[in-house]
Amino acid sequence: MSPASSASGDEPPGSGSAAAQAPAAVSDGPHTRVHFQEQLSTLEQHALGGIDIVVEQLDRVLEALDHQDVELAQMVIADDDRVDGRYLEVHQGILSLLALQAPVAGDLRLVAALLHLIKHIERMGDQCVNIAKLIPLSGHEPPVHRDVLSTLARMGAFARSEVVQSRAAFAGRDVSLAEDLVRQDREINRLNREIFRLAIEIGDDDTFYFAGAAEVVNDCATH
Q1: Cα–Cα dist 174/45, whole Å
Q2: Where in the chain are the domains?
Q3: pLDDT single digits (tens) 105-159
Q4: Is the pLDDT of residue 16 over 80?
Q5: What are the distances in angstroms from CA 54 to CA 58, 76, 120, 124, 173?
Q6: Of 93, 121, 145, 165, whose CB has the highest number of CB atoms within 10 Å?
């Protein structure tokens, strides 16, 4: 047997094409995983964008409450569709992604966090609507009790601050920012008790609802 025939005999027929195909098969897995992570990152950005919408809603409803602006309150109610739409977009996107991919443990933690986050975003949007719906019921004049106005404004400002900080903590994976939310939560709970005391003194039922809704927004941001 010649050396040439011996060399060709050592290599099974067709093995050359199989060797050429092997790198493509190996690279297909990493490519799929990169695509999955890109999609998951996009969904995270959409969820964080939902927090931005909630902050806009909070700004509007606090201004509407301060000025008893019925027209602005109606804008808050109408714009709730944006929050609901963002919830459905992220929620359905995550379910579709899970149906097509098998994420690893680290990805699953982010998926669970996003599902938790988007649920609370939707709840915060609902509370902004609840406050907005009460504004026409309380008349076109702001409450005359200056302490009530001042405390409601401070409570709303704290709730807004916590929502913004929770976004920064999530986006930056900043544990210290997240832990600081617990400290702020104690302050807003104190303001809530103060408002309830004032509401009892002046007999204003709407103040109870305003304070309760603001505390739910704060709790959602903290959780």
Answers
A1: 16
A2: 30-222
A3: 788 999 999 999 999 999 999 988 988 887 766 554 545 466 777 777 788 888 8
A4: no
A5: 6, 10, 10, 7, 20
A6: 121
What span, in angstroms and rounded, lies between the C-alpha atoms of 82 and 84? 6
CATH of domain 30-222: 1.20.58.220
Among candidate residues 145, 140, 155, 157, the one with its CA nearest the CA of residue 209:
155
Give the separation between CA 160 and CA 58, rounded to whole angstroms.
7
- Rounded to two decimals, the pTM is 0.76
Q: Determine the Cα–Cα distance for residues 35 and 61; give it in Å rounded to an integer.
A: 39
Q: Which amino acid belongs to residue 26?
A: V
DSSP states along 176-214 = HHHHHHHHHHHHHHHHHHHHHHHHHHHT-HHHHHHHHHH
DSSP H helices, the chain, are 3-10, 15-67, 70-78, 80-100, 105-134, 146-172, 175-202, 205-222
Tokens 């994976």 -> residue: 173
Separation in Å, CA 112 to CA 33, 65, 95, 98, 128: 18, 35, 11, 11, 25
CB 1 within 8 A of CB 9: yes
Number of Cβ within a 10 Å radius of residue 118: 24
Cβ atoms of 115 and 84 within 8 Å: the answer is: no
CA pair distance 95, 148, nearest whole angstrom: 44
205: Cα within 13 Å, side-chain hemisphere: 4
Count of all residues that appear for the chain in the document: 223
Backbone φ, ψ for residue 12 (5° rounding): -60, 150
